[in-house]
Amino acid sequence: MTSLESAGVERSHVRMTPGAIAGLRSACPKDSHNGRVARVARRIRHLSLEVAGDPVSFRGTIQSVPDVPNPHEDSAFLLACRRRPVPHTPVWFMRQAGRSLPEYREVRAGIPMMEACARPDLIVEITMQPVRRYAVDAAIFFSDIVVPLKAIGIDLDIKPGVGPVIADPIRDAAAVDRLRPLEPGDVPFVTEAIGELTCELGGTPLIGFAGGPFTLASYLIEGGPSKTHDRTKAIMYGEPGLWARLLDRLADIAIAYLKVQVDAGARAIQIFDSWVGGVSPEDYRRSVLPHSRKIFTALEPHGVPRIHFGVGTGELLGLMGEAGADVVGVDWRVPLDEAVRRVDAGKALQGNLDPAILLAPWDVVAERAREVLAHGRTAEGHVFNLGHGVLPATDPDVLARLTDFVHRESVAR
Ligand code: CP3
């Protein structure tokens, strides 16, 4: 099958004719949301399009339909990412799908994490769970940062209570060379699940994600979670050539994985470089930023907002923006008004309530959330989130109440 790109047609020159749009919409059984159109579009073999103003008839696969007026664009989440006026401050929570939800624990019972991440039915169900429960403004794809590594043949597992564990850590050139590129065919379950999700989600945008190069390198080099990333830094400092080759391959894998997600219907992407906060700004600039920049640059033509997050990255916020993010994620250590001073103009911010605050009485949660909103107002765009993932002990009712609170407080202004 051909795609528009392989037929040599530039996406920006393609307009769907009104008839084609109507045809696609009528093929959507439940509604006419664009997510649905994108999904149906992939199945269509024959479509009338205009290329640079001239009508053409096209046979092949349409990966996505970027030129159709998009109802998701009006979503508060995408507007805030694009630093446009919002009806209310949008909110979603990192790890909103996970162990804090009884319905998550129920569907995951007896199913290993990596198996759940490869089953479209479970991916769809778990991604939808928080969206059903909370009025969050975005969904995040249920997966894990190590899924694309497993998909290219790395022997790894996610151990409960531990995290990703790699059977043969990558510490030399031969091991780096075995990291092959990711092909869309390696992750058919991602394409299938996102196709389903864009239908189920209607107007709620889906965030796709990938692990950042430092964080993935750390898991691969250490062989598992590490607090200090000693071996990782030893290679970063001591074998810069090997380090650059490893991070370059990881960047290419992230690019391929993110493109699969965006082509399937993800409306924004987030790079989780969760553990990069242990690196100094100078070393970040020298040894990590070029690889993160490669990822953000490759995604630019896709036109989706790009979010960049890490834990303990207060000293790196400016550089993480510089790497090419549209939205910089901030953990709870730096107030958002200070984060505004640390990033260049032209960036939105995401964050940053300490997840542990949700374990305190509601009055404390409300007061602290109000502060986050006040500081967030100094940013050009603000997506409310936690400073890191939802803790498993969090009461889902508190997250529901917090979502409503953020919406009401931000409308009232
Ligand atoms: O945010 C979401 O709701 C989407 C799902 C998501 C998961 N992992 C599901 C998951 C996302 C975005 C991730 C990314 C991820 N995975 C990161 C970056 C985000 C962050 O937290 O900084 C990292 C560092 C990982 C690696 C990883 N995977 C860890 C540290 C763990 C936790 C280990 C544990 O048991 O405490 C995992 C497993 C994991 N990924 C779980 C979930 C819901 C828990 C597994 C389970 O439920 O058994």
Structural summary, described in words:
The protein has 413 residues and is an alpha/beta fold. It is 44% helix and 13% strand. The chain has 17 helices and twelve strands. The chain is globular. The chain binds coproporphyrinogen III (CP3). Coproporphyrinogen III (CP3) binds at residues 94-99, 108, 113, 140, 142, 144-145, 158, 160-164, 209, 215, 272, 274, 389. Residues 94-99, 108, 113, 140, 142, 144-145, 158, 160-164, 209, 215, 272, 274, 389 line the site of coproporphyrinogen III.
Topology:
Elements (H helix, E strand, L loop, with lengths): L13 E3 L1 H9 L7 H10 L2 E6 L2 E6 L16 H6 L20 H7 L4 H4 L3 H14 L5 E2 L6 H5 L4 E4 L3 E4 L6 H5 L10 H14 L4 E6 L1 H10 L7 H9 L1 H25 L3 E5 L8 H19 L6 E4 L7 H6 L4 E3 L6 H7 L5 E6 L8 H15 L5 E5 L9 H16 L2
Parallel strand pairs: 4-7, 7-8, 8-9, 9-10, 10-11, 11-12
Antiparallel strand pairs: 1-2, 2-3, 5-6
This protein binds coproporphyrinogen III (CP3).
The site of coproporphyrinogen III has 23 residues, from β6.
The structure class reads alpha/beta
| Low-confidence runs of at least 5 consecutive residues | 21-46, 59-69
Span of the ends, CA to CA: 52 Å
Total DSSP E strands: 12
The side-by-side strand order for the widest beta sheet comes to 4-7-8-9-10-11-12
Mean pLDDT: 89
The distinct ligands, each listed once, are: coproporphyrinogen III
Number of helices: 17
Q: Helix content range of the residues, please? A: 40-55%
Oligomer: single chain
Q: How is the main sheet built? A: 7 strands, parallel
Order of helices and strands: EHHEEHHHHEHEEHHEHHHEHEHEHEHEH
Nearest-angstrom radius of gyration? 21 Å
Rough outline: globular
